[in-house]
Specification:
- The complex is a heterodimer.
- Helices cover about 40% and strands about 20% of the residues of chain A.
- Chain A is of the alpha+beta class.
- A 5-stranded antiparallel β-sheet of chain A has the order 2-1-5-4-3, sandwiched between helices.
- In chain A, a hairpin with a 5-residue loop joins strand 1 and strand 2.
- Chain B has helices spanning about 5-15, 25-40, 45-70, 80-95, 135-145, and strands at about 100, 110-115, 150-160, 165-175.
- A 4-stranded antiparallel β-sheet of chain B has the order 1-2-4-3, with helices on one face.
- The chains are: A alpha+beta, B alpha+beta.
- At the A-B interface, helix 1 and helix 2 of A face helix 3 of B.
């Protein structure tokens, strides 16, 4: 498979709180306030985009056919998105024209299940601060970067 | 292929990919847990509640494992949810086949199963006849469904430990939760 370079990974809970934000390229913004704003904006954007997309579909969709977006793309980057029935939202930004990221997001979901949820010290719905998870995500991102 | 057959197949295939643990170890560990709870709380009613609570905490995590490993996205209605739990969930996590029977109205159903690995080697003495030994499973279902926006109550109606031919968990849908997120009022 072609290399897929993940620049940033976000994980949001159903209520909009950002559980995980990790940059693999470039630097984290220094100002904590700016980071909070970025998280809020990203969630807001994803939520609104999903609602918007479902409202302008060319034909009437029933509840189950409504699909969240898979990605959107600008000249500079591509933002991929995956939502679970449990309300978890995974978003990852990559360079444009990256394919098969849904699979990658699915793999990251599996890592979340194995290294976050199974950790008894982790309280569900709180910010993820686990070395094991970080390591696995790093290793996976490096693996798919080719 | 009917949806239910597809679900049963998915249950089987997911089960085959799951890590397995020795069922005797599981039964013994669970038995020790229940015994300790009884020692600590003395009251069977309290133990039942504690088991359900523990199950709830397991369920809120287990749902993601279920979704991630089966790839199930959304159930269209309560019937599909019920069958997903019985055919896929029970199979992949407990290795047993379970059946759905529908309840008094559209919002209630039963999951019936035999061969619950938790009760292997267990006999319920007379003084614990009101102990819902497998109540953990009721909590798991409640916790898992809560994470997919369904508030339910669950009840262990029949138990092989109490002499019934099958075990039965009765599930009642109380309400669907609406999508909302914090910051909505900002």
């Amino acid at each position: 498979m072609a290399p897929r370079k993940v620049d940033t990974l976000y994980i949001f809970a159903r209520d909009g709180s950002c559980l995980y934000l990790r940059k693999f390229a470039g630097e984290m913004k220094q100002d904590a306030k700016e980071v909070e704003i970025e998280k809020k904006n990203m969630f807001g954007l994803l939520f609104t985009l999903k609602t918007f997309v479902n409202s302008i579909t060319p034909r009437n969709l029933d509840e189950q056919e409504k699909e969240p977006i898979r990605y959107f793309q600008t000249a500079q980057y591509q933002l991929h998105y995956m939502e679970t029935a449990s309300g978890l939202r995974f978003a990852a930004s990559t360079p444009p024209n990256t394919r098969n990221m849904q699979v990658a997001l699915g793999r990251i979901y599996r890592l979340y299940v194995d290294y976050v949820l199974r950790n008894p010290s982790y309280r569900v719905g709180t910010v993820i601060n686990l070395a094991g998870f970080n390591q696995r995500v790093d290793a996976y991102v490096r693996e798919i970067a080719g | 292929m009917s949806l239910h057959t597809k679900m049963a197949r998915l249950g089987d295939s997911t089960f085959s990919t799951m890590e397995k643990v020795n069922s005797e170890l599981l039964a013994m560990t669970y038995g020790a847990l229940v015994t300790t709870l009884i020692k600590d709380f003395q009251d069977v009613k309290v133990v039942n509640t504690e088991l359900e609570k523990m199950g709830y905490n397991i369920g809120v995590r287990l749902i993601d494992e279920f979704l991630a490993k089966t790839g199930v996205t959304q159930c269209r209605n309560l019937k599909e949810t019920a069958h997903s739990i019985a055919k896929i969930g029970f199979k992949m996590f407990l290795g047993i086949n379970a059946e759905v029977t529908w309840g008094a109205d559209a919002r209630q159903f039963s999951i019936e199963f035999k061969g619950n690995p938790l009760i292997e080697f267990v006999e319920l003495p007379e003084k614990f006849k009101n102990l819902d030994y497998s109540n953990l499973l009721c909590g798991v279902i409640r916790g898992a469904l809560h994470m997919v926006q369904m508030v339910v109550t669950t009840e262990l109606r029949k138990s092989e430990l109490k002499g019934d031919p099958v075990s039965e968990i009765y599930v009642t849908l109380k309400q669907h939760l609406a999508e909302k997120f914090k910051g909505e009022d900002d």
